[in-house]
Each structure stands twice: as structure tokens, then as C-alpha cells.
Specification:
Elements lengths: L12 E2 L9 H7 L9 H18 L5 E6 L2 H12 L5 E6 L2 H12 L3 E6 L8 H8 L6 E5 L1 E2 L4 E2 L2 H8 L5 E5 L11 H4 L3 E3 L12 E6 L1 H8 L12 H8 L13 H17 L1 H21 L15 E5 L6 H12 L1 E2 L1 E2 L8 E5 L7 H15 L1
Parallel strand pairs: 1-12, 3-4, 3-5, 5-8, 8-9
Antiparallel strand pairs: 2-10, 6-7, 9-10, 11-14, 13-14
Helix pairs in contact: 1-10, 2-10, 10-11, 11-13, 12-13
The structure holds pyridoxal-5'-phosphate.
Length: 372
């Protein structure tokens, strides 16, 4: 008999930058019986998923649905549907995911301009205002919660600058959705994407997106076809809407959609405000404990994310050794720094189901021993 590797998977406390811990209800949802992707009962579940996503995104956008793929497929969907060759696009960068947006938009033939800010600091509104005076951009894109640094960008403030203009506002909420408030309609966001594996406490595999009516009309009146068939919203939209008649596009990842449905239900049942409060309380508990161990937060307080805690690695401490001790001896995963922050910070996630006091205690205990 061949050995089944799945038998030996250990339970790891996922306290890195994602994926986060998955609650038992969501694991159960994954193992529910698979239905056909056009089964009327499955379509009921799809409708509910859309309603739940509208609630969590704070939007009435009809075109709100999960894309089949991880967070990056959400990024790709937003950009590939809105960009046509030579479109002027402005991307604000203060971490890895702003850089990734530039990569995707450039491949689509956009004229990409960028403003770069120091990693670990938030986007500076004044610089954005000045840059916007240079030319009439079609799209302005930014990351709400920059997972690579632990910074919360001032999306509400950026939104105010472009309110009333023709510029389409595109944001990344992969790490923020379900951990802090995301207000798509109030901010006037035209395209947003997220991912399941962070504060929604669902395994990686889906990317909720939402497009405003204005964004949809831009997509509908494109001069060229969306260059990526799989992510073309006008085709995917026909599978996700309509009372009875649904048009097959690709076979939906049925069980992952059950998991998303269950993950969203858990959040709604707990109540959004309670969920956000739980993230904040556990973040404050972690911060206090870290300071007790002589460690400092990398990001300053006003724009620090509760669900992604960047911690400065003290001089003389071996980054990789501490992380591997935590993983091997304590079964806890935390993240290292990326790009210019590699070796300089640890990234401790308190996302979704991970954000619990017992997990914070377990990490602090393990970290204290690993540091010795
Ligand atoms: C802010 C942000 N955007 C995009 C992504 C990409 O998501 P994925 O790795 O699921 O494709 C991530 C993943 O960590 C992220 O944190």
C-alpha cells in the first residue's frame, strides 16, 4: 500500500501573513456533497454568497462575486477587465502588492505611472494630489492593507481626492476584508478584490470581487475584448446572475464555494463590529506581550494593521532560526519580511479565526523560548 501523506499532516497554528486558521465549520462545509454547478440548490447558495459578499464589502454593487482563483486572480480580474492598451494608470506603492499591480498592469499594455512611498509608512495624500494634476488617469489603484509591511493605507482619504472625477478607483482588500471595515460604496470604489485565506478564515482558492455600475459600463463599452477569457467579467457575470437561466462559463469550484459561504455566515453571525473588535483586542494583547519580551512594532500606531503585526527583529537575533524553532518545536508559523524588509521584520498574522487570545498566549510563550 502506498503511504498516504495526508495522514501525517500536523496541525500548525497559522500566525503568518496567510493562510490563516480554518474553523471546523468551514472544514465541514468543504466535505459537503458536491452538487452540479447548475443545480438549482447550488444556485441558491450562489445567490446567498453574493448577498453576504455585498454585506461584508458594504456595497449594493450587483456585480459582486467570487472569482475562481487566489487573491492574485482577483487583482488580475480587476485590471484585465478595466485596462485597454495605452490606458493611463496610476498605482500607489508601499509594499509588495503595489509592485505586483504594476507588473500586471504593465503586461496589459497600460501606460503605468507609480508613486513609491517608504515601505512601513502609509501613502502620502499630498503626493497623490500633485501627481493627479499631471494627466487624466483612467484608473487609480492602491492596496488597503499592505500585508508585506503591516500598514493600513488611508483609502477613505484617497477616495475623497478623486470623488466626482472620471477616475476609476481600484483597491486591494485581500488582507483587510473581514478584519477591518471596508466601505466600497461610501468610498466610491469602482473595483475591489480580496482573497479567502486571510480574515475570511477559508482556505486559499477564491477571490471575492465587486465592480460598480460605472466600472461595469466601462467594461461593457470596451473597444477591445478582455484579453483573458477565463477572467472576463461580462462572461462570468452571466453565470452568476439571472433568475433561472445561467450560462455555463467554467465549472465553479463547488466545495470551495461552500467553504466561502460558511466562512461568511460565521462572520455575519458573530457580527461585523464584534469581529473587528476581536481583531483589535487580540492585536493589542499581542503588542503588549511583544513589548514585554523587549520587542518593538515596526509600524507606527495610527496606521498599524490589527491583523498583520510587523515586528522589528532585534540586533543579533537569527530570523530564520527563530521562525524554524517556532515551527518545529511549537508548531506555530509566523512570516518573515519580504523585499527590503527581509531579515528585518517578522510578520505575525492575527487574521480571522487565528485572532484569539489563546493563540496570542501560545505564540508569546513559544517566542519567549525561541528567543532564548
Ligand atoms: C494585499 C495582498 N494582495 C494580494 C495578495 C495575493 O493573494 P494570493 O497570494 O492569494 O494570490 C496577497 C497575498 O498575500 C496580499 O496580501
Amino acid at each position: 500500500m502506498m503511504k498516504n501523506l495526508l495522514d501525517d499532516i500536523e496541525e500548525i497554528l497559522l500566525m503568518g501573513p496567510g493562510p490563516s486558521c480554518v474553523p471546523p465549520e468551514v472544514y465541514n462545509a468543504l466535505s459537503c456533497k458536491t452538487l452540479g454547478h447548475l443545480d438549482p440548490y447550488f444556485i441558491k447558495i450562489m445567490n446567498e454568497i453574493q448577498e453576504l459578499l455585498q454585506k461584508i464589502f458594504n456595497t449594493k454593487n450587483k456585480l459582486t462575486l467570487p472569482i475562481s482563483g487566489t487573491g492574485s486572480s482577483g487583482m488580475e480580474t480587476c485590471l484585465v477587465n478595466l485596462i485597454e492598451s495605452q490606458d493611463p494608470v496610476l498605482i500607489l506603492i508601499n509594499g509588495v502588492f503595489g509592485v505586483r499591480m504594476v507588473e500586471v498592469a504593465t503586461r496589459l499594455g497600460a501606460q503605468v505611472d507609480k508613486i513609491e512611498f517608504e515601505w512601513g509608512k502609509p501613502i502620502d495624500i499630498e503626493k497623490v494630489k500633485t501627481k493627479l494634476e499631471e494627466k487624466p488617469y483612467k484608473i487609480l489603484a492602491a492596496v488597503h492593507a499592505e500585508t508585506s509591511t503591516g500598514v493600513r493605507n488611508p483609502i477613505g482619504e484617497i477616495a475623497k481626492i478623486i470623488k466626482g472625477t472620471d477616475i476609476l478607483f481600484l483597491i486591494d482588500t485581500v488582507t483587510s476584508l473581514g478584519g477591518i471595515e471596508v466601505k466600497i460604496d461610501e468610498w466610491g470604489v469602482d473595483a475591489v478584490y480580496s482573497g479567502t485565506q486571510k480574515c475570511l478564515s477559508v482556505p486559499p482558492g477564491l477571490a471575492p470581487v465587486s465592480f460598480s455600475d460605472r466600472a461595469f459600463s466601462v467594461i461593457s463599452t470596451r473597444k477591445s475584448k478582455v484579453p483573458n477569457w477565463y477572467l472576463d467579467m461580462s462572461l462570468i457575470g452571466q453565470y452568476w446572475s439571472g433568475e433561472r437561466k445561467r450560462v455555463y462559463h467554467h465549472t465553479a469550484p463547488i466545495n470551495m464555494l461552500y467553504a466561502l459561504y460558511q466562512g461568511l455566515l460565521l462572520i455575519v453571525e458573530e457580527g461585523f463590529d464584534n469581529v473587528f473588535k476581536r481583531h483589535m483586542e487580540n492585536h493589542l494583547k499581542l503588542k503588549e506581550g511583544l513589548e514585554g519580551l523587549g520587542l518593538n512594532m515596526y509600524v507606527e500606531e495610527p496606521y498599524r494593521l490589527p491583523m498583520l503585526n510587523a515586528v522589528t527583529i532585534p540586533e543579533g537575533i537569527d530570523d530564520v532560526k527563530v521562525r524554524s524553532t517556532l515551527l518545529n518545536d511549537f508548531k506555530i508559523e509566523i512570516g518573515g519580511g519580504l523585499g527590503p524588509l527581509a531579515g528585518k521584520i517578522w510578520r505575525i498574522g492575527l487574521m480571522g479565526h487565528t485572532a484569539r487570545p489563546e493563540n496570542v498566549d501560545r505564540l508569546l510563550e513559544g517566542l519567549e523560548k525561541a528567543l532564548k
